[in-house]
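Fig. S4 source data, part A: sequence.
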Amino acid sequence: MNPEMTVLLTAVFVMAGFVGAFYTGYLLRPVLPSPPSKAPSEALARRAFELTDYAERTMDAGGEYKRHWVYARLLKDFPEAPKRAVSLAIEENLPE
């Protein structure tokens, strides 16, 4: 074999190795289970309904301000509740 062919084949095999390693690592990566959804508790959902209703009736401000106000109040009232559940409770109780 001539030297140019050896260099070319070496380059091809090295690139094939990199491509194979990439796809093998990509396709065989561990699949982690998604965390269980944290549904809001009944008390949290009830309080979210009360606060969103109050904010809609009384506050003369933008929607993002009202949502932040309700979120902050719920976090003070339910400090142990996951933030995801608090956000979900607010979103479920938004007026149409």
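Fig. S4 source data, part B ends here. The chain has a mean pLDDT of 84.
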